Amino acid sequence: xxxxxxxxxxxxxxxxxxxxxxxxxxxxxxxxxxxxxxxxxxxxxxxxxxxxxxxxxxxxxxxxxxxxxxxxxxxxxxxxxxxxxxxxxxxxxxxxxxxxxxxxxxxxxxxxxxxxxxxxxxxxxxxxxxxxxxxxxxxxxxxxxxxxxxxxxxxxxxxxxxxxxxxxxxxxxxxxxxxxxxxxxxxxxxxxxxxxxxxxxxxxxxxxxxxxxxxxxxxxxxxxxxxxxxxxxxxxxxxxxxxxxxxxxxxxxxxxxxxxxxxxxxxxxxxxxxxxxxxxxxxxxxxxxxxxxxxxxxxxxxxxxxxxxxxxxxxxxxxxxxxxxxxxxxxxxxxxxxxxxxxxxxxxxxxxxxxxxxxxxxxxxxxxxxxxxxxxxxxxxxxxxxxxxxxxxxxxxxxxxxxxxxxxxxxxxxxxxxxxx
Length: 421
Fold this sequence. Notes:
Layout: E1 27-28, H1 55-65, E2 71-80, E3 86-93, E4 96-103, E5 108-109, H2 117-127, E6 133-138, E7 145-151, E8 160-169, H3 180-194, E9 199-206, E10 216-223, E11 226-233, H4 246-258, E12 262-267, E13 274-280, E14 289-297, H5 298-317, E15 321-330, E16 333-342, E17 345-351, H6 366-378, E18 382-387, E19 394-400, E20 408-418
Antiparallel strand pairs: 1-5, 2-3, 2-8, 3-4, 6-7, 7-8, 9-10, 9-14, 10-11, 12-13, 13-14, 15-16, 15-20, 16-17, 18-19, 19-20
Helix pairs in contact: 5-6
């Protein structure tokens, strides 16, 4: 039984973007180390014709070199022909880049360096002279690649595209927060609404180059209403424990915006907590700094383990014929269903004005309830669930989750198992 509130397990580690060498297409995940692919592009034949200069690329790099130390935030949308697409938010300040995956794919992904502006330039240059084609467009003012389209018929995953959207910069005229004030307010409200009861996180402040903002890091644990903290970087005098709280991080974002600093931030889409924050106080090089949070939801992890164990028991021991009473309460609903199962065939009798068929929000079946719990956890909702010890079916589930089909309490009672052959 899970006695606490449960929210989605979230563990996001944000690493400083490094200098991995670019290849000309995204990495394709494999359960084991893949053998050398014959579709991988080979080095250019030195006896072939010289690569002609690319004036558009050279001009774009020249434009970018004049602004590369400014603050930038943008979203990279990419897709590989026949595979799932990915979306990343990238923030750059003074040449330091941070990447936050927004939509990931089990099939393909780019390296951290490849979604930066310099990395995309390198990607285009690496492709030129190889088989297939690459077409790119560039921002007419700042020079960054706006679109890249690659076609390589000889490789099954050789066709791919990248698109840079939602670009904002500290050079924007007139200056704009890019909707950050609204997103900050929404994030604060989400954290207030959906914050889990038990969690841990690593809070890191990356120092500015001029030393005015010091490096600091705290390891925070909040369990059973008690918060404990250990400083892992710094002496505690300049950046104390209070500064490492999530509400204080919201306040730091707001304070920086109020002083006229250029700020970009990525918030967890459900819980609202800040994941990465980049702050550039002035156009001067050297004063930019960062806050990063790697979050771990203890209650959600426990809830997922209990759900999996219960579902495993039900999968193994589910009887062929059984019946039960399903009660659903919440949002003005007081619905009762009497359900008789024979294999996958259900006979459902509704009472108390409960809708049936397509009019019902959820089919009153145990398998559907398992799926509802799983979706609620995945969406960062609060779930309080109890499971029957032998067979594992949920006996009582209280759900409050974003976008859930049911917000309220579902109970399963009066289970009768027909053991006759």
